[in-house]
Amino acid sequence: MSNINVTINFVHEYFEGDHSGHDFDHMMRVYSLAKEISKKEHDSHFEFTTLLALLHDTLDHKIVNIEEKRPEIWAFIDTLSLADSEKEMLFESIPKVSYSANVPLKELNDSIKIVQDADRIDALGAIGIARAFAYGGYRGQKIAISKDFDPDDYGENQTSVSHFYEKLFKLPETLHTDSAMRIAQKRVHFMQAFLKQMAEEWQGLK
Ligand code: ADP
Ligand code: NI
User: Fold this and answer.
1) Do the beta carbons of residue 96 and residue 112 sit within 8 Å?
2) Is 80 exceeded by the pLDDT of residue 205?
3) What is the number of the ligand 1 atom nearest to the C-alpha of 131?
């Protein structure tokens, strides 16, 4: 079996039962987006980038106990048909993908940049909306409060709608590639239209 297929099977089992929006389907979407961006940007490390996309959330402290899982992830990577230096680079790249890790730009290789872009795109658009509300429910926060819809008063309200303003609408500025930027802009427009409609429905209108 190819490195990619073995890794797809591995993450399928690894993320079984996740309800925080970091499930197997998220990994497959990030993998597809990374493949597309990688081709458009003429990335010369296509296989490495796609493997990193599949594995990018395997060592995220929000989802797993990292210390417990690190040996399992290394043991898996060690079974892949890659040079030792690539195995090490793959293992070291995984924790650098996450938005919350906030790793300085100079420590990011091209593959990490592409996977970061793919991961951030999956937080936008219709899927991004669904994931924000799913994550909010998982964390026990409200859908929204009235202030979230007040253009003069919205802010950090610890609701899923306020997360759109606090983080999601700022994601396009953090992207590394033009290909990702184009997809992100379309998705942000869709989210703005969604919030406009939601603001009207919030007041019982329409
Ligand atoms: P990363 O895994 O890159 O650190 P996050 O785990 O912060 O990114 O985000 C994963 C998903 O959860 C995204 O779709 C994001 O919008 C959503 N999410 C994260 N924090 C919140 C929050 N406070 N409210 C609603 N959604 C959130
Ligand atoms: Ni992710």
Assistant:
1) yes
2) no
3) 14
